Amino acid sequence: MNELPFDQVRTLLAVVDEGTFDAAAAALHVTPSAVSQRIKMLEQRTGRVLLMRTKPVRPTESGQVVVRFARQLASLERDMQMELGIAADSGPARLPIAVNADSLATWFLPALTRVPQNPPICFDLHREDEAHTAALLREGRVMAAVTSSAEPVAGCTVRPLGLARYLPVASPQFAARHLSAGPLERCLPGAPVIVFDRRDELQDRFVRSLTSDGSGAGRLRHYVPTSEGFCDAVAAGLGWGLVPEPQAEPLLRSGALTELLPGRRVDVPLYWQQWKLDVPALALVAATIASAAAESLHNQD
Amino acid sequence: MNELPFDQVRTLLAVVDEGTFDAAAAALHVTPSAVSQRIKMLEQRTGRVLLMRTKPVRPTESGQVVVRFARQLASLERDMQMELGIAADSGPARLPIAVNADSLATWFLPALTRVPQNPPICFDLHREDEAHTAALLREGRVMAAVTSSAEPVAGCTVRPLGLARYLPVASPQFAARHLSAGPLERCLPGAPVIVFDRRDELQDRFVRSLTSDGSGAGRLRHYVPTSEGFCDAVAAGLGWGLVPEPQAEPLLRSGALTELLPGRRVDVPLYWQQWKLDVPALALVAATIASAAAESLHNQD
What would the 3-class secondary structure string for B205-239 be? Predict the structure, then answer.
């Protein structure tokens, strides 16, 4: 990897970030044919196709590896210049982090406010989406992620943060109308349910844990893909759902929600994935997040 | 369009939804070569390339038009079977709708709870993302959208819903620390700011309306891409920002937020875009949303 000419690597990054060869040429102040030439040479040198010539241009799997390398290179270069006091006017450190929606809605932002802002660090948060977070990490578009996936992305380290706790709840009116005609395992599969998105299996798994025939939640499902919207939809009586403990507790106390199975909890392990790279701002944030998670989440054992 | 053989149109839809020719073949219970053959014939008949052979397969601009037609066809067919009482066990009506994050966090969910649920309608909400919402409507992946874009998508009607109102606010501690050294137009460009995502220009436009040199908000920007997270980040003192009125008001009353320019508001017009198609469930939802918006949003004039 060290043998790759940096101008070619930087050109690849510019093409991926700008989306087209022409836009990359404009950003780099070179001609489009120079951009095209550099990419061709880089592909010859690596022996791999690095870019899909779509609109916008997208890196191939091999291309993602080189793009991550390019971003890490830029980050290290910036740190070195800062330390040497020769940094160009490149602005404050910028930390792109992917965070799953429920963490962002509960413990994550208070944790971020604890990160010392001297020198200032700008947070560039992305909503985690498991389908894309691995690609975001692989391409180096985010430096770190709070995710429920324990599977390490290539080039990243993983450490457990703790367990996020969910409570199966509904509004009292909803429970009276849909869940009072018999035992829960019989009523629940036919009742309307709130589901975060197509990948959210929490509700189905919960129903399967109750029923003997292995059936999941019902067909009357509303998809509400924001954390607060999910909780609001349950409180409004559109359906039942598994709500994060910090959001459910005040609503249980006020009587806006009721537990479907008092005392029953569902725990989901969360992980911190980050680049294997010694960036001081990233290390500071990682340590702050880990200690905040230890206070806000439940213990793994 | 009426001349296109329906089996070929349905096959195109299956390929787009399943992502590969093989998966589409499995879903349709035919061989992959039959799928490939039908797509080729459809492309010959329309005289257009309909699919990009990427992984997953994606429709071209022309392909999107045919895909939308296929979805509308399926929706009409379903309605007809329901009316004739010959519907297969296809489940309740499912309405995919894209909604911008701030609407979803404020007035939209209470509006949805007013939609009569007899017969039941399942809501399939997508977070609006202007870059993708036009494509979602064009492909027919959503039937309707609440969006700040007045530009009608091909095949859709647009109607104004009203004005969403935003307040420029910060925490009192933040204002004392960053905005008390001089007039606002001098302090604001240097102060940390919360921005929703790369397409969010509200804060920059607000600063530009104050300054004479046309400069936008500062470089110390934190990106927080959820509506509630945005508001939480402002209240936590990470930066100033333009917060939707319904979220800002209780925090202004409790003293957690303070107005940067008392009385100053920024209004953003919202629109309802939907398929030009007479689906009863869609008409019911559109009417309910429009009347709820008239109550919750401000008047256009």
Answer: HHHHHHCCCCCCCCCCEEECCCHHHHHHHHHCCCC
The answer to whether residues A195 and A132 belong to one domain is yes
Of the candidates A140, A125, A274, which has an alpha carbon nearest to the alpha carbon of residue B222?
A125
Helix boundaries (H) for chain B: 6-18, 21-28, 32-46, 61-84, 101-105, 108-112, 130-139, 172-178, 184-187, 202-210, 227-235, 245-254, 280-296
Residue B127 with chain A: CB contacts under 8 Å: 225-226
Structure token digits, residue A100: 């799953």
Residues of B with CB under 8 A from a CB of A: 52, 54, 91-92, 101, 104-105, 109-110, 112-113, 120, 122-127, 192, 219-229, 232-233, 236-238
Please tell me whether residues A276 and A195 are part of one structural domain: yes
Residues of A in contact with B57 (CB under 8 A): none
Domain of A247 in residue numbering reads as 92-301
Whether ipTM tops 0.85, in short, is no
Q: CB–CB of B219 and A92 under 8 A? A: yes
- Does the beta-carbon distance from B105 to A219 stay under 8 Å? no
For residue A8, the Cα-to-chain-centroid distance in whole angstroms is 30
Quote the minimal CA–CA distance from A2 to chain B in Å.
31
Instruction: Retrieve residue A166's tokens.
Output: 């969910």
Is pLDDT of B85 > 90? no
> In sequence order, what are the residues at sequence separation of 6 or more whose Cβ sits closer than 8 angstroms to the Cβ of residue B123?
A222, A223, A224, A238, B95, B97, B112
The angle subtended at Cα B270 by Cα B188 and Cα B234, nearest 5°, is 30
Residue A218 and residue A279 in one domain? yes
Q: Residues B169, B260: contact at Cβ < 8 Å?
A: yes
One-letter amino acid of A262: P
Of A90, A116, A148, which marks where a domain is finished? A90
pLDDT tens by residue, A209-225: 998 777 788 888 999 99
Does the beta-carbon distance from A125 to B192 stay under 8 Å? no
Does one domain contain both A33 and A82?
Answer: yes
CATH code, A19 = 1.10.10.10
Contact B236 A126 (CB under 8 A): no
Answer yes or no: are the C-beta atoms of A215 and A253 closer than 8 Å. no
A86 and A124 co-located in one domain: no
Nearest to A104 among B109, B124, B229 (CB): B229
What is residue B153's predicted lDDT score, i.e. its pLDDT? 84
Smallest CA–CA separation between A95 and chain B, in Å? Answer: 9
The answer, yes or no, to whether residue B3 has pLDDT greater than 60, is no
